[in-house]
Amino acid sequence: MNRIVEKVVNGVLLAVVAYFAIGVLRNMASTGGVVAIFAALSLFPFVLGPVLIHQTQRISLKPALFPFDPDGPESPEELQSHFDATAAELGRLEFSPERYYRTRRAATNADGSVLLFRNVKTWETARVLTAVGVSNTARIVTSFVVFGSEFADGTEVVTSNRASARIYPPRKPPYHGRAFPQVREVDRLLVVHRARVENLAAGRIAVDQVGVDPDGYIRRVDFEVPSAHHVACGYSYVDEMAGVQRMTWKGAILSTWKLLPPIKQIRLAWERLMAARQLSNLKGGLPVG
Is residue 128 a contact partner of residue 83, using CB atoms and an 8 Å limit? Predict the structure, then answer.
């Protein structure tokens, strides 16, 4: 969408919201002030939120990856203990560190970090993804572990313990991704991942996902493929001139609503329920998907 048109549309939407807000205020005396105020405040996030997201949310098409030392002076203190504990646990599981990266402002008001590990015996990868809010002081917004396995026929099995709400539609097979937010122990998450691989990729030949290009692997799985999926779903579009991916109105509306109560809480509860069913299958010796 042309930027001038975009600004005009945003201005019109804000004017419409202001018009209805004035109408609510004028009628409060006749319709019950408390009820009118409560209704207006309850609905405003569903109207203003998408406008704000559509106007401000940007994702870089080529986010810069900066190698860094999690224990070094450039790493926020809050991250160091978190990284040390996770790296030690992955080391005990025979995963060796490949690369540590920081991404700066890959998304609006957020820096990120990616710690990449690889098991050369099984060709499994482990990524520790952390988003750090930078609006004020550095703080961990979310952090989770992702195990991945890829196979010669294109099948991909990905297992994480992401606990934050997912706003984009899930990808379809041959990609098989599932989050188990209640599984915080890294070793237990790996057990779940391998059970899923046994069910979803039995008899397939595992391939080395990283090869000799760890940078390319990270760009592919964490940026290029997800970004293409967001565009394919109609949630985003590419602004080549600005070098960013912007939200469509569809994406802005749906992603905002998915993060507002009670929708967010319902979706998180459903995701946990689906994960709990798979964990129950694992405990009972049944296939895990």
Answer: yes
Element (H, E) at 257: helix 249-258
What are the pLDDT digits (tens) for 25-44? 565 555 555 565 565 556 67
Give pLDDT tens digits for 151-172: 999 999 999 999 988 999 999 9
pTM assigned to the model: 0.84
Which tokens go with 73? Answer: 């002076």
Report d(CA 133, CA 190) in Å as an integer: 28
Residue 55, amino acid: Q
Place of tokens 């057990």: 191
Hey, how many other C-beta atoms are within 10 angstroms of the C-beta on 153? Answer: 10
**CA atoms of 20 and 38, how far apart (whole Å):** 14
Confidence class for position 256, pLDDT limits 50, 70, 90: very high
Q: What proportions of the chain, in percent to the nearest 5, are helix, strand and coil?
A: 45, 25, 30
Task: Report the amino acid identity of residue 125.
Answer: T
